[in-house]
Amino acid sequence: MTDETEPAATPGKRGYVPFTGALGRAICERVASGETEAAICRGEGMPNRATVQRWAQTLPVFAAALARARAVGGRRAYNGRTLEYDAAVAQEIYERICEGETVKAICRDPEMPSFSTYYRWRKLVPEFAAAMREAREIQADRFCDLGWEIAEAVTPETAYATHVKLGQLRWTAGMLAPRRYGRTKPLEAEVPRQVQTILFRHFKIETHPQTGQRRVVAYTPDPATMTPKCDKEGEWTRLPDVADLSPEAVAQRQAEIADANAPDPDDDMDDDAGRWEGGERVYD
After folding, report:
1. Pick the CATH number of 21-82 from 1.10.10.60, 3.30.390.50, 3.40.50.1240, 3.40.50.1360
2. Which residue, 22, 133, 139, 233, shows the most beta carbons closer than 10 Å to its own?
């Protein structure tokens, strides 16, 4: 990049820095390495961003070199303002809002992002959005202090104007921090009630239809269908002492066992009690 003649410009608030080929190359190299233009322009002896923007508008060679550097550094620009998130610039915006400055005044600063960039950061960068909410609450506290100072300085001649100012400050503080200064407090979202399911186990004594042994069977409702399912079966008891083994006595005893195992119409657990096949209990 060769030195070019820069048109006359009015020195800025940080002091006027004239364009040189070496300075232009240094800026482009730092932009190509990934540094933001805002961070570069805050350095000692560097021009402000308005000056760099003016150089890009009036010096074609520098403008082309800066565009290539931005492409290499992975940055896009609109009217000389970077769109990528810059933590240092975000911190400066946070501090200026905390001091009471408006977003409109900040975004009008040539060294600050535009309105579109500011709102894009708020939408896409969670930490920036959280910082802005905190800055707004701090700003609301400052407005309350300012309102007290205005009220103390009121005179009969300025009473009406003071009333208008205090009304606006009260409204603004309520908008910035509605939980603290708003007239209508936002309601917390209701927490949905948690459904608690209690399952009761049902125990039943069943008798083997062939041996006469007994055991305890436990049933628990299925949480999905709420129908009883057998979940545990106890051990069979040992055979009882039998004195009469005549066919009539055995038939009578089997009839008694069958009657004892007959389904109870009032017991809905029998619907899932299973059936006997080959001396074993089978559940569908």
Report:
1. 1.10.10.60
2. 139
